[in-house]
From TrEMBL:
The chain crosses the membrane at residues 88-107. Residues 3-36 form the Putative zinc-finger domain. InterPro entries: Anti_sigma_zinc_sf (IPR041916), Znf_put (IPR027383). This is Anti-sigma-W factor RsiW. It comes from Cohnella herbarum.
Length: 204
């Protein structure tokens, strides 16, 4: 399959209009073509965002107008025609999605790195890397903010990683408590996005 055909199939799929056989071809292409895969992922996110527009909160005539302008079921590539009819909302949605990645990395850079726990003696800290070494036993909880965590040994408590990165656990690793990863930047961003679209709908 060529990339331009794959893009048409992606839109059809997001509209729910893609036949099973074509779906297989698309999946095949996405597994071989990284650039189409990336494109598909961002289309999917934009699609979810557009669907999440708080239509029910909007004034009645606005929802009626939106419902009327929605393309009919059988029309091919309906999603693209929706985008063409609503360029402002679509551009805003795409802009938001594109901003997310740069925003998250900016946020993570601005956060202070910190490690806390009752037993840091047995933890290796190199720059922003926090390592529980193989064969080592660390007692109590371990909390890392804005760092890379790698567990090769034993942790006798909970592991919490905030705005950081947890390397998949090594086979030698053992964590007695819970593992939690929290991304505050993403939560905050989605809160902002939804309140932004809330204002848009009310204001129209
Ligand atoms: Zn491709």
């Amino acid at each position: 399959m060529k990339c331009n055909v794959a893009v048409v199939y992606m839109h059809d799929h997001l509209d729910g209009d893609l036949a099973r056989e074509e779906m297989k071809q698309l999946q095949q292409h996405l597994s071989e073509c990284p650039s189409c895969y990336t494109r598909y992922e961002s289309l999917e996110r934009t699609d979810a965002l557009v669907r999440a527009l708080p239509i029910e909160k909007a004034p009645d005539d606005l929802s009626a107008r939106i419902m009327k302008s929605l393309p009919s079921r059988r029309r091919p590539a309906a999603w693209t025609s929706w985008v063409r009819r609503h360029p402002a909302v679509s551009a805003a949605a795409i802009f938001m999605v594109v901003m997310l990645s740069s925003f998250v990395s900016m946020w993570n850079q601005s956060q202070e790195f910190s490690v806390s726990g009752p037993d840091l003696e047995h933890v290796i800290i190199e720059g922003k890397n926090v390592i529980v070494p193989e064969g080592q036993k660390v007692s109590g909880n371990l909390t890392v903010v804005n760092g890379d965590v790698q567990v090769l040994g034993d942790l006798d408590g909970n592991l919490t990683v905030i705005d950081g990165h947890l390397t998949p656990l090594a086979s030698t690793a053992h964590i007695a408590g819970e593992i939690k990863t929290i991304d505050r930047a993403v939560d905050w961003f989605w809160y902002k996005v939804s309140s932004f679209f809330g204002t848009l709908a009310y204001g129209s």
